[in-house]
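task queued by scheduler; priority normal; single chain, no ligands, no partner chains; default sampling; output format set to structure tokens
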Amino acid sequence: MNKPTYFRIALPLVAIALGLQVVGCYCIAACASSAGLFVTMNLSLPFFQNTLNRELDRTLSEMSLYRGFVWVGLALAILSLVCVIVSICRREISRRLIPGILLGAYAASWVFLAGTSNL
């Protein structure tokens, strides 16, 4: 009997990937909303232009950090999928339904992200 080592690696990887995806998408949406607000305020309040431009630059740099969260989550999800495939090939005794469901939820979040933003 093979011990389910790859399964034990795959489950936390996909859970962390899904968490990074959720946090990244939420923060990207918040940063995009803030950036839109700063652009609107910049047009209506031109005398605060320097302050608003600094805040806009800070918001856009935060957005790139959260995009990094999303891409790191993608790498972890791919590693998790590889671990599940290796677990299947080694015929490890484990419940692959749980990481399969989490990988499906992760893929669904990418479909949602692709449909709602231009990441």
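post-processing summary
- Residues 5-114 form one domain.
- Residues 49-89 form the longest helix (41 residues).
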